[in-house]
Amino acid sequence: MKTATLASIALAISFSAANAQTIGVSMSDLDKFRTALLNGVVSHGQTISGLKLVTENAKGDNELQKQQVQKLIADKVDAIILAVSDGDLGPQMTKMAADAGIPLVYINNVPSNLLDLPDNQVVVASNEKESGTLETKQVCALLKGKGRVVVLMGEPFHAAARARTQDISDVIATPDCKGLQIVERQAAYWSSDYADQQMQEWLSAGVKFDAVIANNDEMALGAIRAMKKNNIPMKDVVVAGVDATDDALAAMVAGDLDVTILQSAVGQGAAAVDAAVKLIRKEKVPRENNVPFELVTPENIATYLPKSQ
């Protein structure tokens, strides 16, 4: 499904007027992973009789997202699935939904007020302690515990970016990996273009490194693009990302990407819809609903190719 058709669409799945339920879906933006995430929500929603999905794309604008959520509330949707770019927006979004008595499911990004969520608000995400940890442990193994590392971070206020970056530091602090040294660390905002630019700056400044650890695949691919422009053999650098997107898996097959971590957009999307439906029915749903991460390497990539985003 093209991105242009994903924002502000209503999908009506054959339902009777008596049983009709509407779930509003608000996405902070639609980069490659978040588009896959929305597709996961939509595809699972299509399997549930009597369900209507109304989706919105805030295009990276927090104020616009708040306005879109307010509109969904005014339109009296039965539940909201919300992907916020900034977890610190959680308290505001929680209050708006709670005041309206509308169930709220946070998807992918954990809100800062996680521990204070009311009973009809939950989170569907993956445990970020697994993602950066799996990624960095594999890099450490490939470098045999020694080497210089540059780190590309996502949006500074995104919970996943902060957690994955902390995971990197935690792994490097362990006895087996204490020979790794972070020589540079900069935000590239989940973007391949920003990562390309940042890598170009590092290379121009003469930064020496043995590995690139990125908070997501898009940034890993941007770094690869920049290194190729500078005629750096990819066999000489370990590159790692997170998400196991189709582009990342193709880069791994080509021998450019060494490590990625599957974050199942399909799994998160389906779990978020199921949680929203249960909350509408006033059923009990755990506050935290984790979809596991999985390590993907050239050795096991054949198993994961059908699962790509």
Automatic annotation (TrEMBL):
Highest taxon of source: Bacteria
GO molecular function term, any single one: carbohydrate binding
Xref: InterPro entries: Peripla_BP_I, SBP_2_dom
Boundaries of every Periplasmic binding protein domain copy: 23-284
Pfam families on file: Peripla_BP_4
Cytoplasm recorded as keyword: no
Location of this chain's protein in the cell: Cell envelope
Entry keyword set: Signal
Keyword Zinc applies: no
N-terminal signal peptide: 1-20
Protein family according to the UniProt entry: Belongs to the bacterial solute-binding protein 2 family.
The protein's name: Sugar ABC transporter substrate-binding protein
Organism: Rhizobium leguminosarum
